[in-house]
Design goal:
Strand order of the largest sheet: 7-6-5-4-3-2-1-8-9-10-11
Helix content: 25-40%
Number of strands: 11
Strand content: 5-15%
Oligomer: single chain
CATH architecture: Alpha-Beta Barrel
Largest sheet: 11 strands, mixed
Length: about 350
């Protein structure tokens, strides 16, 4: 089922970061206490996942930057290899701002690595500086080049904003010269804090779609797979937008379980509809809310009230439920500008002709 093929458990290692991104989707003001996931909770969540699903895929992610919890990531991966006999595959989504030592470990222990990078140095350094305001592009370029030379799948995920929406072809060429062969992009969306740092950062999504289409065609010519959060289900029909609708678990650093990258804390009431489990340390048990699970599972193409009759419904399935909840207050809500962009892309791209070799992080 298209993007739902990504049958994995996500471990959100922490909520602290080494960068100060201008558009942080979490909203830094929502993070009031420095947290790192407890090892016992991670083990219990992984065992529950292995007992419930045949998948042996684990993804390291964070509400901050996962490599800042490098020792915890090593502990978890080493334990999983011992428990599962080395059959598990690991994915990492990182900002790429880490040491050579960590880069070496990733190259030897991670199967799929996604580096969040917005492309050319002037864009990257503007939107994604360090916490002290320093540039990040030099170190990230170094790590991208190194990991592109290793025997892993390396992809880059770019946030598209006013600074690079019309420079997507240039961005593809930039990643190409670094050795990257897979690029995904997401247009800037409203952070959970409901406050974009600068109104000029916002973009028209149809402008994004038109420039994406041009860049995608160019990427094909030079051997790069270029995808978008809007096109993840264009390879086959589905009634679920993504793995969040199954739901596949995301273990949060405060001991809760959610279904979505945008729900990073059990205490965030705004995104609480996507949180469906809580760890009880005394009994080493995760308590799952079956009513919440059923509500999430009801988020299917057929049940989207504003999507009836849409010609691309089963290659979209309502788009991102996290963004919908954040911006409309309901997982069944829609963003009309997103609908228009997806319809435009669907008219100008082949649908259901081949299975995509790479899935959005």
């Amino acid at each position: 089922m298209a993007h739902c093929r990504k049958t994995q458990l996500s471990v959100l290692l922490n909520n602290f970061c080494n960068l100060k991104c201008k558009y942080c989707f979490v909203g830094r003001e929502n993070l009031t206490k420095k947290l790192e996931i407890e090892l016992d909770f991670a083990k219990r969540g992984i065992l529950d996942f292995f007992n419930s699903y045949s998948s042996r895929e684990i993804r390291f992610f964070a509400a901050g930057e996962p490599t800042l919890s490098f020792k915890r990531m090593q502990e978890i991966s080493n334990w999983v290899k011992h428990v599962d006999g080395g059959d598990c595959s690991f994915e990492l989504q990182t900002n790429g701002y880490f040491s050579r030592n960590i880069a070496n470990w990733i190259g030897s222990n991670i199967d799929i690595c996604w580096i969040s990078c917005d492309g050319m140095p002037d864009v990257q350094n503007y939107y994604r500086p360090t916490k002290t305001g320093k540039s990040t592009s030099e170190i990230i370029e170094r790590n991208i080049k190194f990991l592109a030379s290793q025997s892993i799948v390396l992809g880059c995920r770019a946030t598209i904003s006013a600074c690079n929406v019309s420079r997507q072809v240039e961005m593809i060429n930039y990643f190409h010269q670094l050795g990257v062969r897979v690029v995904m992009s997401d247009p800037l969306f409203i952070p959970i804090s409901n406050n974009l740092s600068d109104s000029k950062d916002k973009i028209d999504l149809m402008n994004y779609a038109k420039n994406f289409l041009e860049a995608r065609r160019h990427a094909e010519e030079i051997g790069i797979f270029y995808g978008s959060i809007f096109t993840v289900n264009f390879d086959e029909k589905t009634n679920l937008f993504c793995r969040a609708c199954v739901p596949y678990p995301h273990l949060l650093p405060d001991g809760y379980v959610s279904c979505c990258d945008m729900a990073t804390s059990g205490s965030d009431q705004k995104m609480s509809d996507l949180v469906y489990g809580k760890y009880e340390a005394n009994s080493d048990t995760i308590i799952y809310d079956q009513n919440k699970i059923k509500q999430i599972q009801n988020r299917t193409a057929q049940n989207m009230p504003f999507c009836h009759g849409c010609e691309v419904l089963y290659n979209c399935a309502g788009a991102c439920l996290g963004e919908a909840l954040n911006e409309t207050g309901s997982i069944f809500g829609i963003k009309p500008q997103v609908c228009d962009a997806i319809k435009y892309l669907a008219k100008n791209m082949p649908l259901n002709t081949e299975i995509y070799p790479f899935l959005h992080p």
